[in-house]
Model the fold of this input.
Amino acid sequence: MMVNDVSERAESHSAGQSGIARTGSRPRGFTLIELLVVIAIIAVLISLLLPAVQSAREAARRAQCVNNLKQIGLGMHNYLSTNNTFPMFAAIPNGFTFQPWSAHARLLPYMEQTNIYNMINWNVQHQFTSGPTVAALRISVFMCPSEINDRSRPTATLTYYPLNYCLNQGTWFSYDPVSWQVGDGSFHVNQAYTPAGFPDGLSNTLGASEVKAFQPNVWDTRQPSNVGVLPPRTPADLMSWLASGTFDSNGHTEWVEADVHETGFTTTFTPNTKFLYQPPGVLTPVDIDYTSMRDGESTTLPTYGAVTARSYHPGGVNILMMDGSVRFGKNKIAQPIWRALGTRAGAEVISADSY
Done:
């Protein structure tokens, strides 16, 4: 009896151990509630991290944009050292319609782009249409990494590549082909300025600013048709002239062309000011620029432009001063301050903390 009893107990203990082992080895899964909680936590973490990632990316893009402008500023001063002047915006023969090469093309050899510059035979090719290969080239230093339309623009005759950094042509008036008068900015037709041509000081005068590629615009309105017209205060002041112009979405798409709505900007309106216009056949209003007459397209009509500085950076635009420094022009800058920064000889006193 004793032996049997011990044997039975041993079998019972063994069976119990076996049962425990089988129970303990069974995998335990997550309940539906636990899974939902984990998913919710992951979603919250992503929502917290995403703005930080986007902010870091924007900071990197903005830093590259600043570097691009510094390279352009260095090119301008290298040009000055060699030629004793800054480059002119365009060279247009008196009494001729013309399609001149841009100042950007003249800056190429001073920005380590000599190979491209050498593709232009300046002895015979005075119009950019004579250089179709050059017109189609993407110049990386002319493109902001935040630009969403970094692509070529093919046409029936040439393929063009856009740009994001344009030169300051002043407040509003740019050029008159009859009197050869020019505006109050830093770069103009048939005019090449020395530092002495900037009584306001190079550090107080805009040289270049960001713009957006494929910018919608209304051009060749032929108004104003005479010299001496004061700049508009608001976009509404220009509305009555829009019907006589041509609308397209090709502004700032030709880095080779010396034209205010291609390689220039004006300080008529402050950075990123919206000029909303409802083009015929377009469902929603678009934010436009305005040009009375393209440079070199008329021998009698002056060029006025409300070509606004724009960027994809939040809060404003990166700007290059004529001394080569790069700053940030805020959207909220007062219009008189912005216009004062655009003049080379306005005798304005501008505080650094005003923009």
